[in-house]
Amino acid sequence: MLFASHDGGDHWEALSPDLTGARPVGAGGAGCGDNLTVDRGAACGYGVIQSIAPSPRSAQMIWVGTDSGLIQLTRDGGRHWRNVTPPVVAAWAKVSAIDASALEADTAYAAVDAQRLGDFRPHILRTHDGGTTWKEIDAGLPAGEFVSVVRADPIRPGLLYAGTAEGVSVSFDDGEHWQSLQLDLPKAWVRDLLVHGDDLIAATQGRAIWILDDVTPLRQLTSLHGPAYLFKPEVAWRVHPNNNRDTPLPPETPVGRNPPEGVPIDYWLGPETRGPVSLEIRDAEGRLVRRFSSDAKPQTVRANRYFEEDWLKPEPRLAASPGMHRFVWNLRRERPRAMRYEYSIRAIFGEDTPTEVEGAFALPGRYTVELKTAGGAYRMPLTVRLDPRVHASEADLVALDRFTRALDRDLELAAAADAERESAHAALDELTHRLRGDAAHAALVEQVGSLAQATHEGSGNDSFGAASSVLSALDADAESADRAPTPAQHQVASQYSAQLRKAVLAWRELRDQQLAVLDVRLRAAGLASGLQGNKSLDSDSLGK
Question: Which residues have C-beta within 8 Å of that of residue 148, sequence separation ≥ 6?
Answer without folding.
Answer: 96, 97, 111, 113, 163, 164, 165, 189, 190, 191, 192
